[in-house]
Amino acid sequence: MELRSKAPAGPLADKWERYRSDIRLVSPTNKLKHHIIVVGSGLAGASAAASLAELGYTVSCFCFQDSPRRAHSIAAQGGINAAKNYQNDGDSVFRLFYDTIKGGDFRSREVNVYRLAETSLRIIDQCTAQGVPFAREYGGLLANRSFGGVQVARTFYARGQTGQQLLLGAYQALERQVGAGKVRMYPRTEMLDLVVVDGRARGIVVRDLVSGAVGSSAGDAVVLATGGYSNVYYLSTNAKGCNVTAIWRAHRRGAAFANPCFTQIHPTCIPQTGHHQSKLTLMSESLRNDGRIWVPKRKGDARPPREIQESERDYFLERLYPSYGNLVPRDVASRRVKEVCDEGRGVGPGGYGVYLDFADAIARLGRHVIAERYGNLFEMYERITAENPFDVPMRIYPAPHYTMGGLWVDYNLMTTIDGLYAIGEANFSDHGANRLGASALMQGLADGYFILPYTIGDYLAQVKLGQVGTDHTAFRQVEREVSERVERLLAARGRTTPDAFHRELGRLMWDKCGMSRNAQGLKETLQKIAALGERFARDVYVGGKGEEFNQTLEHAGRVADFFELAELMCRDALHREESCGSHFREEFQTPEGEAKRDDARFGYVAAWEYAGAGKAPVLNKEPLEFEVVHPAQRSYV
Amino acid sequence: MRLTLHVWRQSGPRDAGRFVRYDVTDVSPDMSFLEMLDVLNQQLLGRQEEPIAFDHDCREGICGACGMVINGRPHGPQHATTTCQLHMRTFPDGAALWLEPWRARAFPVVKDLVVDRSAFDRVIAAGGFITARTGSAPEANSTLVPKRDADLAMDAAACIGCGACVAACPNASAMLFVAAKVSHLGLLPQGQPERATRVVSMVAQMDAEGFGACTNHGECMAACPKEISIDFIARLNRDYLKAVARPKPQAVKANGGDV
Q1: B21 φ, ψ (degrees, to nearest 5)
Q2: Among A399, A424, A452, which residue terminates a domain?
Q3: Which residues of chain A, if any, have pLDDT below 70?
Q4: Residues of A marked as catalytic
Q5: Chain B CB within 8 Å of residue A422 CB
Q6: Has residue A67 been placed in a domain?
Q7: Over 60: is that where the pLDDT of B201 sits?
Q8: At what angle do helices B175-186 and B147-157 cross, to 10 degrees?
Q9: Among partner residues B63, B145, B150, which is closest to A74 by beta-carbon distance?
Q10: Are residues A374 and A480 in the same domain?
Q11: Could you say which DSSP state residue A435 is in?
């Protein structure tokens, strides 16, 4: 497999502008003739579907939720970055670019990251024009706050509901096109496979989640905007429905899967309370603007937090990283939290938690200011834990949150299958080995509003696509395969529910392929996953029929794909004999316990190619070339 | 904790539906309401019985997917809380709970506690947007928005589209949902050019979907998990009156054509 990034030549700052002016265009009348399939309706999918339809393309958009407005982007809390420099604190496109590439521990493609930083400026303009009610200052100008890993305030926000408001903006733009007849929306419809004809993506096979019918959609290009795969861990901050199936099925059809082991564990989540737990809830990173993280200095100190004197507390992030303090990047914070808990200094039930304390901020700014900034988060915390963060410090612990890995894409956001694109969290492109806070929303909207709508035209303008409809034999064949998969799940009639299998898989992955990894653990886990996968095929019980609304069946199909993904994640983590960003191999660390990169051996993107069932996947490497930045040991001290 | 559940079971839109009783034991007060249902569903599957269908996704109270009527109240007894954020410690040990789907003509039952809320999407498609073609936006800080207006718009924009307001209303009216969107966009300077056509188009679609009229019961506000105020309904009525009092008020389709 050849990996051509198609990164344009020229000075970094001019590349995208020049490239955009050089690529081919599709004439307005020809645009009308092209049908584009968009799978997923989150920030990336909804913004892409709306923008493509505005350009004149005919678009079909699919989502498994009952409405496109419910895609998981809606749950993003804290904010979206943009290099506007409205605070006059020295921000610039270059600084956002540099922070992002450094935050990603120098494992992302320089040209893509620069383009992202550049595009950030227009996103804020676009969203404001759509009526996104960003927070404002008294004079009417837009307000900003800070996020981890940076020393400027460049994050725009709408209370603690930034993802919701940005998604509603994109959703409304999408619905406008639905009303205009340019987008056909297919809610409660799940993509279960990709159809490739003559080496090009020409459609998808879907299951109507209400009737259970398996059907197809044919088009000239397919865009996957189906999000990340943190739910491989079972317990994560993702919505229950988030899954890997769409991109995994595309991977099995020939799309390379890049850096699958780069998974972000977010430091500030509400700790688990019991074995019944179905998901973990994030507490926005923005809380680290005003909250101070600490644990008792003494092991096993079980006194209530307010009885522990200042001198008996260890504000360990402030101690270890004086210049960034509590706002170090997520991977660093998570690792340090785990470390103090492993030392026996954790707080709360089971010792898996650290305090996030607002007492100082309340004393300094007043209760009303804190309530205005974080009121809804405090309420959410209280509903879940029955504790009020105004009176007692929050308890937090890391949890799987975001996946930097995903389908490999070139500069055009096209995967290794012609005509198949991946945007937003579904691709691997911009965050390297660790994503900075408030950058996921930025990337989803950059891809959907401002990058894909241009680059897809370059493909459609140059290829000669024959007429392929859903009556083509390739569609019949893939539909048959999908139906057989569904039948197999239903026919097993074992004794264990898909949910129980999913929990067991999640536990394995969290323990050995989570916040820290080592060769022995990964090797053992590979064997355990294979054994569990075999048991799943034999012993799963789904019940009901395929031709009906069957939520257990939906889940079973997703779990089956998670098994295959989990194996690839462990392989990737095992082969990468270095630590970088979120990928922390215990064997490779500095004396201070920081990630120790090995640029000479691993300065590349690992793009895995599917080789067939039961065969080891093939590793392809895209070397990372840095023209402008110089990879260095990341320092937040 | 032990609970007795009476759950509405309905195999599809054509089935009459009925309550079925389930006794649930070993419920922890720290469980969320949906986790309690998860436990019951796992037990049902273990006995090879059909699990209860219910919509849910984020389980953080923001996606708006979940929602059921619990003892006659949409999203249950806790103020300003979605079903997924409701925790079992809210209920006394031994409680009897009656679970029903949203009941409204415009929200047909799909299965058990799952209803079809696509009418809301069609109301948004009819006019619940600001026309701002991608790429055409001016510099964001070139339009100043007083903080008070932005905050009030945000209060309205907090709507999660769950449909509890419709379920709570004796008339199954969608006025709070529509009012929230009309107000969010109408309070901002960017929303002014389409303000009149927006409200007329959205109200026309709301009526066409079969939602009832508003008779000021206020049940919607009491049920709303995001505490959207009925002041916004007054605002909608004002906008609507102003719009139709203008010469030749017309509902306009998204492509600019007449309805």
Answers
A1: -90, 135
A2: A399
A3: none
A4: 330
A5: no
A6: no
A7: yes
A8: 150
A9: B63
A10: no
A11: P
- Backbone region of residue B84 per phi and psi (left: phi > 0; alpha: psi in -120 to 50; beta: other values): alpha
Let me know: does A442 contact A300? Beta carbons within 8 Å: no
Helices (H), A132-274: 162-179, 245-252
CATH class of the region B3-111: alpha beta
Q: Does B249 score more than 60 pLDDT?
A: no
Q: Which of A67, A178, A278 sits opposite B59 (nearest CB)?
A: A278
Give the Cβ contact number of residue A507 at 10 Å. Answer: 14
Residues A272, A378, single domain; the answer is: yes
Across the interface, whether the CB atoms of A172 and B124 are under 8 A apart is answered yes
Please give the share of chain B, as a percent, with pLDDT higher than 90. 95
Q: Looking at the predicted complex, does its ipTM rise above 0.90? A: yes
The count of structural domains within chain A is: 2
The CATH homologous superfamily to which domain B117-245 belongs is Alpha-helical ferredoxin (1.10.1060.10)
Question: Is residue A381 domain-resident?
Answer: yes
B118 in contact with A, Cβ within 8 Å: yes
Are B42 and A497 in contact (CB < 8 Å)?
yes
Mean local confidence (pLDDT), B175-204: 98
Say if B85 is an interface residue toward chain A (CB within 8 Å).
yes
Is the same domain home to A357 and A482?
no
pLDDT in tens, A388-415: 999 999 999 999 999 999 999 999 999 9
Residue B48 forms contact with A (CB below 8 Å) = yes
Q: Which residues of B touch A173 (CB under 8 A)?
A: 129, 132, 134
Q: Hey, which residues 549-588 in chain A have their CB within 8 Å of chain B?
A: 549, 551-552
DSSP state, residue B99: E
Q: What per-residue confidence (pLDDT) applies to B253?
A: 65
- E strand or H helix at A542: none
Q: Domain span at residue A272?
A: 266-399
Q: How far is CA A538 from CA A152, A495, B41, in A?
A: 54, 9, 21
Residue A281 forms contact with B (CB below 8 Å): yes
